[in-house]
Design brief:
InterPro entries: ARM-like, ARM-type_fold, CIK-Related_Protein, Kinase-like_dom_sf, Prot_kinase_dom. One of its GO terms (biological process) is tRNA export from nucleus. It comes from Cryomyces minteri. The chain has helices spanning 2-13, 60-72, 101-107, 112-132, 170-174, 181-184, 187-192, 204-219, 239-245, 256-264, 273-280, 289-302, 308-324, 329-340, 345-351, 353-360, 365-373, 375-378, 384-395, 404-417, 423-437, 443-455, 465-477, 482-494, 501-512, 521-542, 575-589, 598-603, 632-638, 716-730, and strands at residues 19-25, 33-39, 45-52, 81-86, 90-95, 98-100, 135-136, 145-148, 153-155, 162-163. The protein is of the alpha+beta class and 749 residues long. Among the domains are: 1-97, Phosphorylase Kinase, domain 1; 100-272, Transferase(Phosphotransferase) domain 1 (Transferase(Phosphotransferase), domain 1); 432-543, Leucine-rich Repeat Variant (Alpha Horseshoe). The radius of gyration is 51 Å and the shape is elongated.
Length: 749
């Protein structure tokens, strides 16, 4: 806290420094203090090196030399400087976000291939300084090397970096002020001082220090020169060059440039897939297809050895540029998806999402299919707004594409994005496109559309779900493609719970039943399974329904409660018991006298009287039976009217005939002219509707004999015989409705 307060005080007195100081980072063997920081303008991450002028006045020339060299030296292997500020009390250097290499070295957390890659980067930077810059770094050690956010090793520690072209180079005077300079100094410096550099090769000092760096990187620490002969932890193929770097004779010492050449030879220690990939990734957009394929193959081989940060910050941006602008194609995009799986949501939104949105607008079919294939890997990182507003409007163009593979992949992609779509989009635009896909010319697409509808059923609106699914599945059940029919049945089985019980009974069962006799066994088997599911649900629901919804009649309501008659089946569930019960109920509800139809008499020959004909009433009195009394059933039978009297034959003056009783039973039985059992004469149908009560007849001349048994019950056997005779005669008569109307006057009754 005291340090930060002092920094804040110094900033307030000096020029403005557009960065915030964060946590302090421990750095060994350095004149600088390192803090994490953020830029005031946009909050981007950075690191801040601070030098306290008051506390380290003797080393102020080193700090000023470092600032000057960092401003003028530009190389990919050197830390990137963002800004510098120098005051009377402090010197600040803002750089990219860095991490001391010593953290990783002490924990020995890096793989051997990663260490080689890091040494390779440092060697290239030193070669540039020694050869192109004719300079000596003079402070090569782990404390002078940092790792960037991309995992690359970056060189710093330019406190005594000097050009050998300068007569008063700072390294000659202040080289010994570098912390721990004696431990890392080569033998000639320890013996003769820093002035000896002038008489030796420019790279001699840095070559020896680079040899110590190799030992420290593979062993985790360095205590003194007596440890340098222990090569157990150093890779075997590096032993020879390592020893040449540590040669006591500076003139015979291997230079950094020659060291790189030795490592890059065929089979050399720098000939690794990781280093080849790092070298080739930046130019992937310029490579031909064969070279690009080789590079991607290498990337797959070293994905576990690469630092994760390097994938995110270095490889991924280059691959994205290759996909979008360099013709990288689907294979490069697949690699992008594997790398992006390690990104956080913030990193994904910043790097991947914008590229994905732009790629969906591309007309390249190969890119579109690749995007659809990898959509499951992306969907969790995409917001609902992005999917609805940016991706879905482009995705639906695949439903109508000319290439079947694009249409099919688009249908499959619906299952992936359905959870991110709004209800309005699902029940509107999406269903319209799926309706088109359900009628696609490709049977596989029709089948997949049916499967898709079954899986997204629960996302559909409650008001449209039943109509949409029932219509879609019914169409698929008529599809000539066997797998489309089978898919429809499986979808029906999977979505049985989205329909109401009434829909299951009224719509679904009639739709499923024709598949029970399908020509393909696979369809028949699935139809039976699906039918069982629906039947079980309907039966279970039926058990919860009441026996009847009609209110029970009560005596208090003035309703005559019918008492069961002796001999009438009450609980018999057989067909006969039901038929007789209905027949007797029909007779009990009949009213009035039976009367022959005038039209029938005029147009048809005389027929023998039916066995159920009864005498007409005379003066409103019923005829007496042989016993002198009439049973209730007998009185009901004698009062039944003729069924042939229709409203068209009723005289206009007889207004009492409008009293008609409604009954639908005959709508399903006996009035079909095409049926063999159709009734030619409605008066012969005992299940026909009851007719209004006609005006009582005064003609007593015509009386039909009673056709009752001795016990007063109707003679059913006789009635059945009469019906059989009528049916045999009806075959020669004209169909109902085609009889000629009577031309003469109606016969007198």
């Amino acid at each position: 806290m005291e340090f930060l307060s002092a920094v804040a005080s110094a900033i307030s007195k000096g020029p403005s420094f557009p960065y915030f100081f964060g946590d302090r980072v421990d750095v060994e063997q350095s004149i600088w203090t390192l803090n994490n920081g953020t830029k005031r303008e946009d909050g981007s991450k950075c690191s801040i090196f601070s030098f306290d002028v008051t506390a380290n006045k003797s080393r102020l020339p080193l700090a000023r030399n470092a600032v000057r060299k960092l401003r003028t030296l530009r190389h990919p292997g050197v830390i990137k400087v963002l800004d510098t500020v120098e005051t009377d009390t402090y010197i600040y250097i803002a750089t990219e976000r860095l991490t001391p290499l010593g953290w990783h070295v002490r924990r020995r957390s890096m793989a051997e291939e990663t260490v080689k890659w890091g040494l390779y980067n440092v060697a290239k930077t030193l070669k540039f300084i020694n050869d192109e810059g004719s300079s000596v770094h003079g402070c090569i050690r782990t404390s002078s090397i940092f790792t960037s956010e991309s995992g690359e090793w970056k060189l710093a520690g330019f406190d005594v970096l000097s050009s050998m072209k300068e007569e008063d180079a700072i390294i000659y005077t202040y080289g010994s002020l570098v912390p721990d300079s004696g431990r890392y100094a080569p033998p000639e410096i320890s013996k003769s001082g820093w002035e000896i550099i002038k008489s030796n090769p420019v790279s001699a000092v840095d070559a020896y220090s680079f040899g110590i760096l190799i030992y420290e990187a593979f062993n985790g620490s360095f205590a003194g020169t007596d440890q340098l002969l222990q090569t157990k932890s150093i890779p075997l193929n590096m032993h020879q060059t390592y020893k040449r770097l540590l040669n006591a004779n500076p003139k015979a010492r291997l230079s950094i440039g020659h060291y790189l050449e030795q490592g890059q030879r065929s089979g050399g220690f720098f000939e690794t897939p990781l280093i080849r990939l790092a070298e080739g990734i930046e130019s992937i957009g310029l490579k031909n297809e064969t070279e690009r394929e080789d590079l991607l193959t290498q990337l797959d081989a070293v994905s576990d050895d690469f630092p994760e940060e390097f994938f995110k910050m270095k490889v991924l941006p280059e691959l994205l540029k290759s996909v979008e602008f360099g013709g990288g194609g689907p294979k490069v995009f697949s690699v992008v998806m594997r790398i992006s799986a390690k990104l956080s949501d913030e990193e994904y939104d910043a790097q991947i999402t914008p590229v994905v949105v732009r790629l969906f607008t591309s007309p390249d079919r190969a890119i579109r299919v690749c995007l659809l294939d990898n959509l499951p890997l992306m969907i969790d990182h995409l917001s609902k707004k992005i999917v609805n507003d940016k991706i879905f409007p482009q995705l639906v163009t695949g439903f109508t594409d000319l290439a079947p593979v694009v249409r099919e992949q688009t249908v499959k992609a619906v299952l992936t994005i359905i959870g991110k779509l709004s209800d309005r989009t699902i029940n509107g635009e999406l269903l319209r496109y799926l309706a088109k896909s359900a009628n696609d010319e490709q049977p596989g697409i029709r089948t997949n559309t049916t499967i898709c509808l079954g899986k997204i059923a629960r996302y559909l609106g409650n008001n449209t779900r039943g109509k949409v699914l029932s219509a879609a599945f019914a169409r698929s059940l008529r599809d000539p493609f066997v797998h489309a029919r089978n898919a429809a049945l499986m979808a029906l089985a999977a979505t049985s719970d989205v329909f109401t019980e009434e829909e299951c009974a009224n719509k679904m069962l009639p739709t499923i039943c024709p598949s029970l006799v399908d020509k393909e066994k696979i369809v028949r088997d699935q139809a039976n399974k699906t039918l069982d599911i629906y039947l079980q649900r309907i039966r279970k629901y039926g058990q919860t329904l009441p026996d009847s919804v009609l209110p029970p009649p009560t005596a208090s309501e003035g309703i005559n409660v019918a008492v069961p008659r002796m001999g009438t089946p009450q609980n018999d569930t057989s067909w006969a018991g039901w038929a007789i019960s209905s027949f007797t109920n029909k007779i009990a509800s009949a009213k009035g006298d039976m009367q022959a139809s005038t039209n029938d008499k005029a147009s048809r020959p005389a027929e023998p009287q039916r066995s159920l004909s009864v005498p007409s009433s005379v003066n409103g009195k019923l005829p007496q039976t042989s016993s002198g009394t009439a049973s209730p059933l007998q009185r009901q039978a004698l009062a039944a009217p003729s069924a042939t009297n229709s409203l068209n034959n009723v005289p206009a003056t007889n207004t009492s005939l409008l009293d008609v009783e409604d009954e639908d039973f005959d709508a399903s039985w006996g009035d079909n002219p095409d049926s063999e059992d159709a009734w030619d004469d409605p008066s012969e149908n005992p299940f026909s509707r009851s007719q209004p009560k006609p005006k009582p007849s005064t003609n007593t001349a015509s009386k039909a004999p009673s056709n009752l048994t001795d016990t007063g019950e109707p003679d059913f056997a006789g009635w059945l015989n009469a019906q059989a005779a009528a049916k045999s005669k009806a075959k020669t008569s004209l169909p109902k409705g085609l009889t000629k109307p009577a031309t003469g006057r109606p016969a007198a009754v």
